[in-house]
Automatic annotation (TrEMBL):
This protein's record includes keyword Nucleus: no
Membrane spanning residue stretches: 238-257, 269-287, 299-325
Family note: Belongs to the protein kinase superfamily. CAMK Ser/Thr protein kinase family. PIM subfamily. Belongs to the ligand-gated ion channel (TC 1.A.9) family.
Protein name per the record: non-specific serine/threonine protein kinase
Biased composition annotated in UniProt, kind: Basic residues: 453-463
Chain segments annotated as coiled-coil in the UniProt record: none
First and last residue of the signal peptide: 1-18
Length: 759
């Protein structure tokens, strides 16, 4: 019995001793944090003084409380996450029952002195955080929320549609860059996303982004490391538009409306002065908002000054008009008395001896007669002038012309409504007598009957009148292609419909104006001398929502991809012939400054009889340039590798890559001779500078060697097609493995994360 009690006692003692290592107290005593050790509380935690301490920071903006344009200051609430490496606080978590982190008071451990350079006033938002968190691998982390007012240089030129950028610079005022290195914890996109997610206010300002950058500054002689956070925010202008911009505009409209007020009274001038005073009040409000030391005058100030000036000029104009009207009334009130006395004197001189009573009656009658005569003469002159003006505007003949039964036969003079043509001399005189009249072009003129090709303006006549549409040949993302026949001579054509909404871009061609991009490129390529290996554009029609292209259609023909699928993959003789024609077409395009950008078997028409090819579909093309193309157009399977790595490519190497892929495609499944395989590998070089040019391909031994074989293609057996499928699958597998290896190599070049540096 005593033996059992002894065993229980020993077991309990062992459990207590084991539990003693599982407490935070044991961990703190192990780290020496409770002994007021100067090494832990006051000295920088490094084993050697030359070793710098790495400090990592994150700054999150939780609200924008005030932006003071007058004082040029920004008030925000920010949360700063601070972390650094302390090699003296490392422990093995297995020795302490798996404890991986522990919280201790700030006065028990060294904390880096980080301050805000632009700070005008910094306060804790709630209460200061008294603790720091220790991690088992030596990292120390703490965070605090501050209400910060910082100086910010603002550009108010576009107020209130402005975007402001303010900086918050964090640095150590004591430690140099050799002692303390400050780096960001997270990237800018994560900071922006987290800040917008935690944003508390929806006031006047909208947070756009938070960007980080580093800089060095020398204050006491030694350079010090700085971490700069650039906060970009945009003002919500709707309040200023409603309360300021629109009232000023309404005042201007009211001022313009005063021109319809009668100037005889004084209400017009008083109303204008009231509007001018209203603008002055708004200018005083604007003065209180904007700083007086701005380098550039804000656009809203220019807006108000211009409207204020226009209204001031309007007031001066009203004063001048009132003055002129007053002077005119004075002149009119004096003239009738002088005219009456002059007319009376003239009448009296023609009479006999004066009689007082007769003179008074005759004076009154003669004055009325003379005034009536003047009025009648004035009315007669005005009537004569109106008759002369209306005389040239009257129609000399109104006729109804009935449709003629035969347009090729001139109408008979007996037909109703027939007007005989004018003689040539009379027609010339009519045309010269009315130089300002715009003569309409007759619909049956010779110029309108000619077909409109790509070298002229688009055809104005209907497509249905000139061409009959047949079955659908193909359809893509930008439009569709139908077979067709020209009604005049039965020529087989291809009718391509392209939506303007999908291809809005236009290109200016010398002598033709601005044309749709595909029409412009084909106009450049088809200009004389033309290339027989490029499809010709016969004419095109411009419609409201789309444009129609009339293309030549060789008969019989089909695209090269369908030709290979139906007749089997090509041998080297026919492949060489097709390659030479393709190079000729591409070199012709380069000579005209055009880049096709979508070379593939589907865009090559091959004659099933002569095996001649034609390059078609310039919908993905562009003007040829020496600089790199920043966006990709074409088929992604034929894209060069530099597009996937660098997101850019050059015209020559990219064209050669697509030619190589096309050649491999039409030869896929068979092993060509050594020279052919070497040419394919040369065209498919991963580096753009290692690929050949089109001239190099043309002079390659495999291309320049002559073949005597007449049969240029053959049917593949079942075993050959199976082998071709396996080889193609192995090729794609090899490309995937190479891509994975390249991704791993790129990942290995990424700098280590802060956690790796701390551990």
């Amino acid at each position: 019995m005593y033996l059992g009690w002894l065993i229980v006692y020993l077991a309990s003692v062992g459990l207590v001793s084991a539990a003693g290592n599982c407490s935070y107290k044991a961990l703190i005593e192990h780290l020496g944090l409770g002994n007021d050790d100067i090494q832990m509380t006051s000295l920088r935690p490094v084993f050697e003084w030359k070793t710098p301490t790495y400090v990592f920071l994150d700054l999150y903006v939780t609200s924008i409380t005030e932006v003071n344009e007058k004082a040029q200051s920004l008030s925000t609430q920010v949360t700063i996450l601070l972390g650094w490496a302390n090699p003296f606080t490392v422990w093995n978590q297995d020795d302490f029952c798996g404890i991986s982190l522990c919280s201790v008071k700030k006065d028990m451990i060294w904390i880096p002195d980080i301050t805000i350079t632009e700070s005008i006033k910094t306060e804790f938002a709630t209460s200061e955080n008294q603790y720091v968190q220790l991690l088992y691998h030596g990292a120390v982390v703490t965070s605090n929320t501050f209400a910060v007012t910082t100086a910010c240089k603002m550009n108010l030129h576009q107020f209130p549609f402005d975007v402001q950028s303010c900086t918050i610079t964090l640095q150590s005022p004591i430690h140099s860059i050799e002692e303390l290195i400050i780096s960001p914890f997270s990237d800018a996109s994560f900071l922006t996303f987290s800040s917008k997610k935690a944003f508390q206010t929806q006031g006047e300002w909208e947070l756009l982004s938070i960007n980080t950058s580093k800089a060095n500054v020398s204050t006491l002689g030694d350079p010090q490391d700085q971490l700069i956070y650039k906060i970009t925010m945009r003002r919500r202008p709707m309040l200023y538009v409603i309360n300021f911009l629109m009232p000023v505009l309404y005042f201007l409209i009211l001022d313009l409306a005063t021109f319809f007020i009668d100037s005889s009274g004084g209400e017009k001038l008083g109303f204008k002065v009231t509007l001018l005073l209203s603008i002055s009040v708004l200018l005083l409000l604007l003065q209180d908002m904007l700083p007086s030391t701005a380098t550039d005058i804000p656009l809203i100030g220019i807006y108000c000054i211009v409207i204020f000036t226009l209204m001031a000029v309007s007031v001066l104009e009203t004063i001048l008009v009132n003055f002129l009207i007053a002077k005119g009334n004075q002149t009119i009130s004096v003239r009738p008395m002088k005219s009456s006395s002059a007319l009376s004197d003239a009448v009296k001189d023609t009479k006999g001896p004066p009689d007082p009573e007769t003179d008074r009656s005759e004076e009154h009658l003669n004055t009325l007669d003379i005034l009536k005569q003047i009025l009648m003469e004035f009315q007669a002159a005005a009537t004569h002038q109106n008759q002369q003006e209306r005389k040239s505007l009257n129609w000399t003949r109104v006729a109804t012309i009935d449709p003629l039964p035969n347009p090729n036969q001139p109408p008979s003079q007996e037909l109703p409504g027939y007007i005989p043509p004018l003689p040539s001399d009379l027609a010339v005189s009519v045309s010269t007598d009315q130089p300002h009249r715009k003569r309409k072009r007759q619909s049956g003129s010779q110029e309108d009957e000619r077909p409109s090709t790509s070298h002229r303006r688009p055809a104005k006549r209907s497509r249905r009148e000139a061409y009959a549409k047949g079955p659908l040949l193909g359809q893509g993302g930008f439009g569709s292609v139908h077979a067709g026949i020209r009604r005049s001579d039965g020529l087989p054509v291809a009718i391509k419909y392209v939506s303007k909404s999908r291809t809005p871009e236009r290109l200016k061609v010398e002598g033709h104006g601005r044309l749709p991009l595909e029409v412009a490129l084909m106009t450049l390529v088809n200009s004389a001398p033309a290339c027989p290996n490029v499809l010709q554009l016969l004419e095109w029609f411009d419609r409201r929502r789309r444009y129609i292209m009339i293309l030549e259609r060789p008969v019989p023909c089909q695209d090269l991809q369908s030709f290979c699928e139906e007749n089997g993959y090509l041998d080297e003789g026919l492949a060489k012939k097709i390659l030479l024609q393709l190079i000729s077409a591409l070199k012709h395009c380069e000579s005209r400054g055009v880049l096709h950008r979508d070379v593939k078997p589907e865009n090559l028409l091959i004659s099933t009889e002569s095996h001649d090819i034609k390059l078609l579909d310039f919908g993905c093309g562009d003007r040829l340039k020496d600089s790199a193309y920043k966006y990709f157009a074409g088929t992604i399977e034929y894209a060069p590798p530099e597009w996937f790595r660098q997101r850019c490519y050059h015209a020559g190497p990219a064209t050669v890559w697509s030619v190589g892929v096309t050649l491999y495609n039409i030869l896929c499944g068979c092993f060509p001779f050594r020279e052919c395989r070497q040419l394919i590998r040369w065209c498919l070089s991963a580096s753009a500078s290692d690929r050949p040019t089109l001239d190099d391909i043309e002079s390659h031994p495999w291309v320049s060697r002559s073949d005597t074989a007449e049969n240029s293609f053959r049917k593949r057996s079942k075993h050959e097609l199976m082998a071709a499928t396996q080889i193609d699958w192995l090729h794609h597998l090899l490309q995937s493995v190479r891509g994975s290896v390249w991704i791993l190599e790129e990942l290995n070049t990424v700098p280590a994360k802060p956690e790796a540096e701390i551990s």
